[in-house]
Structure formats: C-alpha cells, structure tokens
Amino acid sequence: MTHEVQALPLLEQVSTSVGTLRQTLEQHALPNLEAALIETETALQALNRFPGGIAGLRQAMDLLPGELRDRCHQLLEQAKQDHQINAELIRLAMQRNAALQAYTAQSSSAATYSSEGGVAMVNSGQLLGKY
Fold first, then answer.
1. What is the per-residue burial (b if ≥16 Cβ within 10 Å, else e) of 54-77?
2. Beta bridge partners of 119
3. Torsion angles phi and psi, residue 119, rounded to 5
4. Distance (Å, rounded) from C-alpha 131 to C-alpha 119?
5. Following CA atoms 24, 85, 87, 11 in sequence, which dihedral angle do they give, to the nearest 10 degrees?
6. pLDDT (tens digit, 9 = 90+) per residue, 18-61?
C-alpha cells in the first residue's frame, strides 16, 4: 500500500479518536475517558509512525487527487481543532476539580490544614467523580 493510500484512513482514525475524546470531555463522561484517551493515543502514535512523520503525511496528502486531498486536509484541520478544544476542556476540568476538592475539604468537619497553610486534601491529583 502506498503512502498516499495510507494517508486517508490514518487521518480518519486520528480525527475520529480526537473527536470522540472531545465528546467524552464535553459530556463529562468519566467512565468513558480512559478508553477515549487510549484510542486517541493509539491514533496519534500511528500518525507519528507514518513514514516521514507529519511532513511525510503532508507530502503524501499533496500527491492525492483533488477530492481526496481536500478530504484529508479537512480531517487534519478538524483533528487539530478538536485537539485544541480538548486541551482547553482538560484545563477547565482540572480547575473545576481543584475548586470542588477545596470546597469539599473546607466543608468537611474533619478539614485539616497542612503545614504549608493549605487544606490537606486539595491538589491531591485525583479527579472527583462528579463535577
């Protein structure tokens, strides 16, 4: 199979997996998060293994006929946009989680404070199940 022929299925895999991760993050579907992350990581690793990497993929895309080339560029742009949105959604989820942990810790009758002056259970690195 030539590199040009490999480009479209690879981009479909990347775009689909990054899009699925975006939906999972938008819906706060924590039970589905691990599978979505693994699927995305697998797709991105396949993208990195493409002969010549991203530059090789772009070269292969440029060799495709018009409609296929346009479809590949569309998939790549969608994956890029979803990836950027995913980063923002993860950042927001981490902020929300930290706020919930702080609220939970301060609301607890057993709230204790660390030697640094903060609430002991805040910033433990664990995600709360609901937000």
1. eeebeebbeebeeeebebbeebbe
2. 113
3. -75, 130
4. 19
5. 80
6. 999 999 999 988 899 999 999 999 999 998 999 988 889 989 99
pTM of the model: 0.72
Distance CA 41, CA 124 (A): 25
Number of domains in the chain: 1
Give long-range contacts, CB 8 A cutoff, 24+ apart: 52-55: 52/3
Residue 117 lies in a domain: no
- CA 117/CA 6 separation, integer angstroms: 56
- Hey, what are 65's tokens? 């006929």
**CB 8, CB 111: distance < 8 Å:** no
Residue 78, domain extent: 3-107
How sure is the predictor about 96, in pLDDT bands with cuts at 50, 70 and 90?
confident
How far from 15 is each of 9, 19, 41, 113, 120, CA to CA, in Å?
10, 6, 12, 45, 41
E-strand spans in the chain? Answer: none
Band of pLDDT at residue 111, cut at 50, 70 and 90:
low
